Amino acid sequence: MAESTDMSLLQEAFKKFSIHGDTKASGKELNGKNWAKLCKDCKIIDGKSVTSTDVDIVFSKVKAKTARVITFEEFKKALVELGPKRFKGKSEEEAVSSIYKLIEGKEPANVGVTKITKKGGVDRLTDASKYTGSHKERFDESGKGKGKGGREDLVENTGYVGSYKNAGTYHEKLQEK
């Protein structure tokens, strides 16, 4: 009875790892990359008795000759291959049971995934209120970009050069005389 619950937990972990990183995956087949990730995340690879090379060799051994993926049945065969290698000194059944325990209920870890940083120079470089010159005009007071209006020089056909302080005062000077 405990064996069936172990298999359901094992199958759930298999499914989670098989769809990891692949939007088109059905969850019924595990590719080599995700097999290696499963072995690494579930601590089957210990660097001493089981290495990533061992994991790759076992994957190649259990898969069909022309296939690039393994099914759940082939997955179980691969674990039977790795069990005695990982747990030396235990019987084959105990080793396989121990390797199942390592995998049950686990899912892919996203440790090491790139995160957005806001430290040191990044804050200073992305703060629009500190921009000067032509870049300053690309953002409003709140720091929100003005879009195309902030990127293009908009031509004003007033007859005056840009940024002329006394623009529009010519007619007033004529009336004063």
Task: Please tell me about this protein's structure.
The chain is an all-alpha fold. It contains 9 helices and 2 strands. The chain has a two-stranded antiparallel sheet. Helix 4 (about 70-85) packs across helix 5. The longest helix has 18 residues, at about 1-20. It is rod-shaped, with a radius of gyration of 32 Å. The model has no long low-confidence stretch (mean pLDDT about 80).
Question: Key features?
Answer:
single chain; mainly alpha; two-stranded antiparallel ribbon; 2 strands; rod-shaped; microtubule; EF-hand-dom_pair; TPP/p25; Tubulin polymerization-promoting protein family member 3; tubulin binding
Cα separation of the termini: 108 Å
CA gyration radius, whole angstroms: 32 Å
- Low-pLDDT runs of 5+ residues are none
C-alpha geometry? rod-shaped
Q: Helix content range of the residues, please?
A: 40-55%
Largest beta sheet: what is the strand line-up?
1-2
Task: Bin the strand percentage.
Answer: under 5%
Order of helices and strands: HEHHEHHHHHH
How many runs of DSSP E, i.e. beta strands? 2
Mean pLDDT: 81
Structural class call reads: mainly alpha
Give the gist of this structure.
This is Tubulin polymerization-promoting protein family member 3. The chain is an all-alpha fold and 177 residues long. The protein has helices at 2-19, 32-41, 52-62, 72-86, 92-103, 121-126, 133-136, 148-151, 170-176, and strands at residues 30-31, 69-70.
Architecture blueprint of SSEs:
Blueprint: H1 2-19, E1 30-31, H2 32-41, H3 52-62, E2 69-70, H4 72-86, H5 92-103, H6 121-126, H7 133-136, H8 148-151, H9 170-176
Antiparallel strand pairs: 1-2
Helix pairs in contact: 2-3, 3-4, 4-5
Keywords: Cytoplasm, Cytoskeleton, Microtubule
InterPro entries: EF-hand-dom_pair, TPP/p25
Family: Belongs to the TPPP family.
